[in-house]
Amino acid sequence: MHGDHDLGHTVAGWAGTTIAVTGCTVTAVALAAGSPTGLWLGGAVVVLAALATWLLHLAGWGKAGGPRPVARQHWRVRDASARRGHPDCLGCRMAGRRVTAASDVAAAAASDVAPAAPPVPDGRTAAGQPSLP
C-alpha cells in the first residue's frame, strides 16, 4: 500500500498517540458533562502523553528524523543511536544529548548493529533471502 516508505511507526509514537487520544477523550467527556475537574484530568493525561513519548524516544523506542534503513523500519526495533542523540532533534537537545558534527552522525550510524530483518509474508526476509523454517 505505501511501498517502502518509513512512516515512523514506533513504540514511542504508538504509546504517545494512545495516551493522548485517551486524554482528549477524557477532556471531551468532561466538557460535555461540565466537569472542571475532568477537564484538568484530561489535560494532565495529554501532558503525560508528551512526557511518555519523550522518555520512550530517549530510551531508544522512537526514531530520528528521516527514513530508516529497511531492516530497521519495524516498529519494535530499538534505535541504539538514541543514547548519543539525534541531529536536529529537539527532544534529544532538551535531554542534553547533542550530535555536533556530520562525522559524529556517521560514526554513530556505523557503530549500530542492524538486527536480523523480520520475515515478510512470502517467506523471504526484507533482504530477499529465504527465511529458515
Oligomer: single chain
Give the percentage of residues in beta strands.
under 5%
- Count of individual beta strands: 0
Number of helices: 4
What shape does the CA trace take?
elongated
What are the low-pLDDT stretches, counting only 5+ consecutive residues below 50? Answer: 113-117
Radius of gyration: 19 Å
Distance between the first and last residues' Cα: 27 Å
Spell out the helices and strands N to C.
HHHH
Helical content stands at 40-55%
Q: What number is the mean pLDDT?
A: 78
Which sheet architecture does the biggest sheet show?
Answer: none
**Given the helix and strand composition, which structural class is it?**
mainly alpha
Output the keywords:
133 residues; mainly alpha; 4 helices; 48% helix; elongated
Plain-language structure description:
By secondary structure, the protein is mainly α. It is built from 4 helices and no strands. Helix 1 (11-33) packs antiparallel against helix 2 (36-61).
Put the structure in a nutshell.
The chain has helices spanning 11-33, 36-61, 90-94, 102-111. It has 133 residues and is mostly helical.
Topology:
Elements lengths: L10 H23 L2 H26 L28 H5 L7 H10 L22
Helix pairs in contact: 1-2
